[in-house]
Amino acid sequence: MTNPDMNELNRPTSAPAQRRGGGFGTGLRLGRWGGVAVSARWSVLFTLALFADVLATSALPAARPGHGTAAYWLVGVLTAAVFLVTLLAHEFAHAVVARRFGMQVKGITLWMLGGFTELDGRSPSPHADALVAVAGPATSIGLGAVSALLAWWAGGSGLLGAGLSWLASISILLGVFNLLPGAPLDGGRLLRALLWWRYQDRARAGRVAARVGRVLGFVLIVLGFLEVVAGSFLGLWLAFVGWFIVAAATAEGQLDQVEGLTGLQVGDVVEPAPTVLAEWWTVEQVLAQASPDDQPVARAFPLVDFAGQAAGALTVRDLERVPVGRRAETRLRDIVRSRRGQPLLTRREALLTKIAGQLRQRGSIAIVVDDDNRPIGVLTADDLARVARSVERDRRKSASLSI
């Protein structure tokens, strides 16, 4: 199984959490091709090695027996490298069509599961969304057809013909796989475009496509484990692809949900902090005063330093995770400092859509502060989701009353 193609991260630039492809390293810049910045993650070398190994030790010897090991490896490596070029062509197809509709292309990145094209802004219409989505799979299928013709022209004999035949099969498989109807695959983009045209509501269409994508990902995970049980190593790859689709579809669903918050500010939804904790207090001191009946374990509380300024935020669940034997000596600031990154600080006038991506990056808790950097409330990713659902319900009620 090959690239699930995390293509066309077609969303506003206010979602920086989606710029990079999932923690597989910064990679290597390959320059600007046709005005588009192209880079490759180091994990793409794993894909190159995997396909070269499959070709040299299995596919090519089975198709054309009798050749030397060196010949198999030479053709295998070259064929795998050409396949990576076809992945790049797949991404360029997205970029070219997006440009035709006035969207800016921020860059193309190849990585372990294929590639993605980062667009600055969203599609102007369902029609544009559909054409941008279908451009990649159409290119892959077209390149597969060209490879098949070249294999036929080569007579279908020899290692060259075998390599071209494999390239034709895998390119067509890539194109067809990407047309499966679930985000973040190109088929999910196409489904989103069709539903966008049907509902006249892009956010709603995106949420449906994300739900379908999660179902598809779980199906692939189950199929992958079944293959592993049957003794096929490729099942691990299939399960990993499914896991990634589930994660990416979930993230996209959250982004589309947040789109319903356009125009709202933090101050419109944040609730005043019921309790402010001092960072020098111990976990034992806080838990001794906490009442499970009064405070949900997931509720976040801001921390302040000696000057009364915001120093972080914690939940009751964070405190309860500290081992009982260490609660008397563990101070709240110790828990905050053990985390990566600094706490997210925001103000009442900040737009909810702007901080949504930052919330996911910073531990899903934002501290709302005043002009003196003193906490006045907290905001979590769960709060955003709850408000988005409320806004969506109100919108649907209004729409039904207007009919």
List the SSEs and their pairings.
Elements: E1 9-11, E2 28-33, E3 36-40, H1 44-63, H2 69-100, E4 104-111, E5 114-120, H3 126-153, H4 158-178, H5 186-199, H6 202-229, H7 234-258, H8 266-269, E6 271-272, E7 277-278, H9 283-289, E8 300-304, E9 310-315, H10 316-320, H11 332-337, E10 344-346, H12 352-361, E11 365-369, E12 375-380, H13 381-402
Parallel strand pairs: 1-5, 3-4, 7-8, 10-11
Antiparallel strand pairs: 2-3, 4-5, 6-12, 8-9, 11-12
Helix pairs in contact: 1-2, 1-4, 2-3, 2-4, 3-4, 3-5, 5-6, 6-7
Can you describe this structure?
The chain is α/β, with parallel strands linked by helices and 403 residues long. It folds into 3 domains: 9-179, no CATH class; 202-261; 266-390, CBS-domain. Helix content is 55%, strand content 14%. The chain has a 5-stranded mixed β-sheet with strand order 1-5-4-3-2. The longest helix has 32 residues, at 69-100. The model is unreliable at 1-25 (pLDDT under 50).
